[in-house]
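ERR on first pass: missing label on line 2. Operator R.T. fixed the label and resubmitted. Corrected input:
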Amino acid sequence: MSEREEPGAGAGASPANALTRRKFILGVIAGGAVVSAAGYRLLAPRAPLRVAGGERLLTLNINGKQRRVEVAKNERLAWTLRYKLGLTGTKLGCDRGECGACTVLLDDVPHYSCSVLTQTVRGRKVQTVEGLAAPDGTLHPVQQGVMDEQGFQCAFCMSGFLMATVGYLKTNPNPTRTELAHGISGNLCRCQDYNKILDALMKGAENMRRA
Amino acid sequence: MAEPDAKPTKEAEAAQRRLGAAGPQASASTSGTRAAGALEPAPTEEPQPRPFGEGYKLIGKDYTTPDLLAKVTGKSKYAEDFRAEGMLFCKLVPSPMPHGRIRSVNLSQALALPGVRAILTADDLPPQPNPLAERALTNEPMFQGDPIMAVAAVDEATAAEAIELIEVDLEPRPFVIDPLESLRPGGPNPHAQGNVWVRSGPPHPGIHLTPLKWTAEDFADYDQGRLPMGHAPDEWSYGDVEAGFKSAKLVLDESFVTPDVSHQCLEPRTAMAYWQNGKLFMHVGTQSTYQTVPAIARWLQMDPDKVVLISEYTGGGFGSKVTGTQVMIVAALLAKKCQAPVMMRISREEEQYLGRARPGFQGRMKIGFAADGRITALDMFVVCNSGGYGSQFDSISSGNTVSLLYQPPAMRWRGVTVMTNTPTRSAQSSPGGLQGITIIEPILARAARQLGVDQVALRRVNAPEGKSDFGPANHGVRPHSTSSFLKQALDHGAEQFQWAQRAARPKRSGTKARGVGVSLSGFGAGSIGYDGLLVVTPAGRVRFHCGIGNLGTESISDVHRAAAEVLDVPWESCDVVWGDSSRHLPYTCPSDGSQTTHAMTRAAHAVAMACRQRLQEVAAKALGGRPEDYEVANQRVFRKGGGGGLSFAQAAQHAIRLGGIYDGHAAAAEVHPATQAAAGGLAGQGLVVAARDLYGRDGSTYSFVASFAEVEVDVETGKYDVIDFLAYGDVGTVMHPRALGGQLLGRSTLGIAHAIGQKWVFDPQYGAMVAKRFYQNKPPTILDVPVAMQWNALNLPDPETPVGARGVGEPPVGGGCAAVLNALSDALGDEIYQRAPVNADTILTSLIAGRPMQHPLMANI
Amino acid sequence: MAVVRDVMPAFDLLQPTTAAEAQRLLQQHGAEAWAMAGGMDSFDWLKDRIKRPRVVVDLSGIAELKGIRASGGGVEIGALTTLTGIANHPAIQKDYGLLAQAASLVASPQIRNQGTIGGNVSQDVRCWYYRDGWPCYRAGGNLCYADTPVGRNREHAILGANRCVAVHPSDTAPALIALEAQFVLQTPQGERVVEAEDYFVGPGQDITRINLLQPGDLLTAIRLPGTWAGARFYFEKVRDRNVWDFPLMNVASAMTLAGGQIERIRLAVNAVAPQPLRLRAVEAAVRGLPANAATGEMAGQLAVRGAVALQFNAYKIPLMSNLVKRAIGGVPEATWA
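pass 2 clean. output:
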C-alpha cells in the first residue's frame, strides 16, 4: 500500500474503499468546500532569463533552392519558413506537434515544423506546400486530387495534410484507404471533413500513380 | 461564343420553370402536408428522392470553387499570414484565477524592458455600461485565462518577458465551476449579482443575472443520481402533460449530462490591425465579412465606415467566430496606442480560453410512450452552463428542437441558464439541438427495447412531417416548420444502411460486441430578408459581391450559382468577390445557424430576377419595344421569338450610358442602406443590380437528418470504434453535392466527438482547466471515425423558398452523437452510461457493475 | 509575476556531433543544460517556460547514436534511432516484433519520425497538473493536486504511488522490459549498463526524477539480448483516441513455450504506476502452466493485488487484469458472419 497524504478538504474515508470514497466526495461537494478560494495556488515567480543567443546566418535547402537566412538559436523551422522566408502556406495550429498543420518534409519524411529547431536542418532537404507544384504552375498530383474532389473545408489543415500524404506515398505509393488514413493520422482537421479528405487524397495517390 | 438570339436550352427552360419567375409559391413542386394530427400519407403520395442537379445546369452539380486553388497551393492568406512594415507583436496576460478583482498593478519594470512599446489594460477600453458584458480585457476576470492586460513589443519574446515582469495583485473572489453547485442552498455565486440568467418581460424586457438557490429538499434527488429540479426561471408547456403520462404504457425518467466542448478551430482567433488615414484595417478570421464590420465598430465605439476588414480565408468557426471575437480589438487599440501595426497571434492555449465552447447540460427528461412507441407526453428540464459571460440560448433551443423532432402531443420544458467561472460559451453547430437530442435519444432507445418496437419504427412514428408545429404557442399559435421529409430520410436511410439486416445480426463474438443506433436530427436552417448585389460588366461577365465569411463551407460561391442558373450564364463567366469589406458588400446574413444557404440563395435568386428585369428594360430602351418582349439566356437579352438582342457586354455598356438605377448610381429602394452604399460604390462599372429577398415564407426553416451508426466494442478493455456511419439529409434542394457531403459528415463527426471523447476537464477546487491540450481534451482524429462514411440526401426542395435550398451545418450534429450512443446501448444494454462522452473507463466498469459507473451529475470530469 | 505560455525563452544551442562531445558538454554545463533528442517532450516544457535551461544540447546530429546493429547474439539500438526506424526495421520486425509494435503505436506518424527510442523511454510524466506548472511534489512542492477528493485523476496511478500519482507514459518501456533490454549510460564515472526495469526511478526513490539520468549523463544505446528473439509476444495499448494519445494502459509480454506450458516469461505494464512495472509475481505464478485463458484469468487477478483506485480511475484495475490475462492467454478472435 502506498503512502499518500490527503491534501485539500481534510479527513475522509479510506482511499482504498472506492464506494465509501465516492459518498465522501458527494458530501464534500454538498458542503461547498470546493469553492473556497483561500487555497488558491500561485505559481512561483521566476526571474526572466536573457541569453545572448543572437542569430546566425544559415544556408538552407528549401523547395530545391538554397536560401540564406538569419536564424536564432531557439527558432523553430515553422518560424523561419513563415516569418523569414514568407512561406506562409505552412500553418501554425497548435505549436505543440498536436495538429499537423505545420507538417513539412525533411529529406522526404513528414515532420512537424513547429517542433524542429531550424539549426538542425542544415544540409537537409526541406519541402513545403509551396514546393509541390511545378515551376510552370502544374499542380502536384496530390494537389490535383484535392481539386478533383473538392477536398477540405476551411483548409487551414490542408497544407499539412498534403505534405503528410506526399511523404507517406513515397513509402507506400498504392495504399488502401485504411493504410492512407493511418499514414496521415498525424494531421487534425477541425472541420472534421475526414471522409472527403480521404476521397481527395486517395484520388491524389491515384493521380500520382498515373503521372 | 453563344449563338445570337439562341433559344434557351431545354435544361435552362426546365431550370427556369423550377426556379420560377413568381417567387416561391410557383416553385413549390413538392409541398409538405400539414401534420396536425394527420394520418400517415397515402403511399402513392410518398415523395421520392431526386437525383442531384436534375433539371439544372449548375444547381446540384459539383464544381471547383474559386477559392480552392489558392488553398491547395498554400497561397491563401489567413490573418496570421500577413506582415506589415514596423509591425509589433502583442501577447495577452491571462488571469491565473477563476474569479478575482485587480487590486493593483505595477507595470514599471515591464514598461522599462527594452523593446516594450505599450501595455493595454481594461481601463484603456471604450466604456461599457453593462458590468456583466464581456470585454476584451477586464479588471474582474471571470474565468482562469480571461485576459486582463496585453503587452505590445518588438517581438513576442520581449512581450513574454515583459509579462513576467508585470506585478498584479489579484483579490480572489468566490467562484463556481459546476452549475449545480451554484444552485445548492448557500452555494457560491460566480458574480456578485448572482448566478442565474433570468429573462424579464415588459416593462423592462431583457436578461439579468440574479441569485437563485434551490432547497435541500430539491437536492435530495442529487444523492440518488437524479437531476434535482428546483425553481426554473424559464418554462413553457402545451397540451395536457399529466394526462399524457397517465395514458402512457411506459414512462421513463432519466438524467443525462452532456459535455462542454470547445470549438477548437484549427486557426486560432489571431488578429492583425493597423491604422491608416484614420481608418482601421483588420485582418481576422470571421464567420461574416459583412457583419463583423459593425461589430468591430460597436466594440471600439467608432464609425463603421472607418473600418476595413480583410478576411478572405478563415480557419474554422463552427459558431465561435460569429462576427469575430471581441478580443481582436486589443490589436486595434494597441496599434492605435503604438501608432504601428500590431499582430496578436493567439496561441492554442489562449484559444482554449478564448475560443468559445458549447455549454454543457445537466438534463432530465420524463417521457410517456404508447405501446407503438408514440410519445404521449414529455417533461424536459435542463441546466445550461453558460460560462463567465452572457446568457446562451442553448436551453431554449434544446426545448424547441426536441418538440419539433419528436412531436410530443403534450410537453413541458423548463430551463435554468447558469453563469459559472468558466470560459465564455457561444453557439456551436446545433446549439442546444445537440444537447436536446443527446438527452432524449438514449431514452427512446431504451423505450424501443422495453416496448419491443424497432428503433427506426419508433422514431418514424414520432417524426415530424410536412409543416409541423413545435414549441410553445406565441399569441395562441404554435410555430411550424416550412416542411419536413424526415420520415422519408429515415426510410431511405434505413434502406441504405441495411438497418434491418444489421439489427438482426448477432451482437457478440469473442470479446467483441456490436450494436447499431439510429437518431433523428435537425436544426433551424435558414433566415430571410437579405440582399444580393451583382455587376454585369462591360466585358460580359457577371460579378457577385459577397459578404459571406469564407469558412470553407463553399457557400461564398454555392449561393451565387443559383443566380447564375436563373440568368442562364455559364459559371466560367462569373466571378465572386469576397472577404474584403472595402469591396462593396451587400447586406448579408452572418454565417451561423446554418442560415446562409437558405438566406443567400434567396437573395441570389432575387438579384438574378431583378437583373433579368433590368436587362429586359435595357434592351427595350436600346432596341425598342417593351421589356416583356425580351428574354434572357446564353448571356444575351433578346427578343422572344427571334429578332434583335444585346449581349451581356453590350447591355452593360448600355446600362452605363443609362446611369441611374442601371449602373449603380441609384439602387432599388427596398434594399438595406449598406447595400445602397455598396451599389453606389460600384456605380459606373456596368449593369449594377441590387435586390432584397422579399419572398414570403410560411413557417420556420428547419433541416433534418436521419443518422445511423454501428459500433464495435471490446468488452475486456471497454475500447470501442465507430465502424460505420450514415447521415441521410432532408435539407431541401442540393446545391453542391461535395460540399453538402462534407457538411453532413463533418458536422456529424462533431456530434460523434461528443459521444466518443471530446470534453472539458476542470479541477473544481482551484477552478482551473486541466485538459488544455489536444491530447488531453481529445478532438477526434481521422482514425476515430469510420474509414469510409456514408451520406445521402433526398434533394426535395423546401416549398417555402425559391431555390428550395436549406442550410445543413447544424442539422446533422445531434444525430452524430446520439446514433453512436444508441449503438453502444444496442451492443451493451441500457446500464452503461448516463452522460457523454462514453469511453473505455465507463464501459469497462459499468459492464462489471451492471449499472452506469459514471458520476451521474458532476460537470467537467 | 504574471504567467505567459507559448513563447520559448532564448537558450544557447550546442550541437555536438559525437557522443563524447555531447557527454563533455553535458558534464560541463551540468544542471544548466537540457539534453534534447527528438524534442517532442522537451519543447512542451520549454514553450511553457516552465523549464528554463541556459543551454540546450541538441543530440540529433550525433550519427553514431542512430541505427540498429547486430550485437552479441542480439541487437543494439542507438538511443537516437527514431521510433519509425525501429518499427520499420526488418530485424526488429522479425525477431522483436513486440518492440516494433509498441513503437508503431506511439503518438502519431510525424512524432514517430522524429521521436527517438531514448526519448520515448526517458520522457517525463504527463500528469496535467505537473505539466501545467503546478507546484506539486514532483515539481519540488509539497502537494499532489491530482490526488485530492476532487482532483481529476482518471489517467493516474493505481499502483506504486508515493505522494505523486502520475503514471509513466512510455509505450516502448514495457516492451523493452519484457525483452530484457539493457540500457547503456555514459556517466562522468564511465559507462554504466543497467537492466531496463532498473532505469526507471519511482517517486519513493526520488520524486523529482523519472529515470537514472543525472545532469551530465547520456543514454547512448539500448541492447536487446538474443534471449527473447522470436519469442511469443503480446502487446496491447488502450487509449482514448486511436492515434496521438498516451496509453490509458499498455501491456507487453514475451514468453517461450515448451509442450504448451509456459517455460519462460517476462511481463510488464505501463501507465498504471509512476514507473513501468515488471510483474515478477505473475511471471513466477504462471511458469509451467499452460498459456491459456484459465492461466490468464489467474494471472490477471494476481496482477492487480494491492491496486488502489483514486476517485476517477477505478477502471484501471479491471483493465489491468484483462490486459494481463490477454498477454498470457491471448484474445479469442471475433468472427462476424
